[in-house]
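User: Hello! I'm new to structural biology and keep hearing that structure can be predicted from sequence alone. Could you demonstrate with Aminoglycoside phosphotransferase domain-containing protein? Please show me the input and the output so I can see what each looks like.

Assistant: Of course. The first part below is the input, the amino acid sequence of Aminoglycoside phosphotransferase domain-containing protein. The second part is the output, the predicted structure written as tokens.
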Amino acid sequence: MAGSQFTLAALATTAVPGLVVTGTRTLGSAASGDYESAVLRDADGGTLAIRRPRNQRAEARQSADLVAIRALSAGIRTRLPFAVAEYRGQAPIGSTRAIVTTYVPGEHPTLRSLAERPGLATSVGRAVAAVHQLPTSFVTDAGLPSLTPFEVLRSAVSVMDRAVATKLVPAALKERWEGAARDQQLWQFTPTVVHGSFGTESVLVEGDAVTGVLGWGELRLGDPAKDLAWVLAGRSDAFDTVLSAYEANGGGRDRQLAQRARVHHELETAQWLLHGVQVKSTEVVDDAVAMMHRLVEAVHAPSAAPLQSVSPETMEIGEVEQLLSSTERRHG
């Protein structure tokens, strides 16, 4: 039937001239998800993947991912301790297109597995550090986004302000987030190459080793802390292990990295709230509010880590607003 693994296999032969497919299997769910995907075995013994987006959101994500993986040259890839899919070809189908890449094997880890397997957490920290040490020039040469610390702060403040405007953010979180926004020292960092959407769905592992990383559509220069924030959704000891490995492999020269990672992690609840408001989903809004109240309980625990820098040099709210205003004019 249309969209089946066999249709995709036939489409791949159009996308990649000379390709002879000798076997195929479904990749992911055949009935749900944003993509119709298949894994293909070719006559030379290689393995490819083909993905056809099912909606405009997936199409936009695939297009961004394609730009990024084509920017990751062979020389850049040699600096990474894991595999990245390589572009092989594309073919139109209906109103969209199917993209063929090399297939990167592996399984997605869970946050629980990072806590239970320190070796895996160490491999994750090493993988993130490798991305952050890539030369920045290839990102700018590819025309990918390049965010300054001021722009990262401005984006965070925008999320905070829009979430607070819903009047659903607990007062304790509002105060905590505003304190982080006022902390000038917290936002002093050197932008690095960042993956931009690291998480369990983008990481592939075999045993305790990270073997591949997917989903490069948010590749840019930005805040390295953002690539570590997702680990904070699991146990704190897992984050500590990831961070230690990250620092041991050349990352984390900025002392406020862990605190900013916590800011990005906590603001994910605000973004989930804003998504619920945008799509008018009471279920999502209620879930986000419940998450924020659980977060309040967590940050009030005696062992909770602060968001502010260790020796904060704070600005007044007016100074922050003036800073953001001048930055907006400069980059507008």
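User: So the tokens describe the shape?

Assistant: Right, they're a compact way of writing down the 3D structure. Reading them back into a model, for example: Strands lie at 21-26, 35-42, 47-53, 87-93, 96-102, 192-194, 203-206, 209-213, 220-222.
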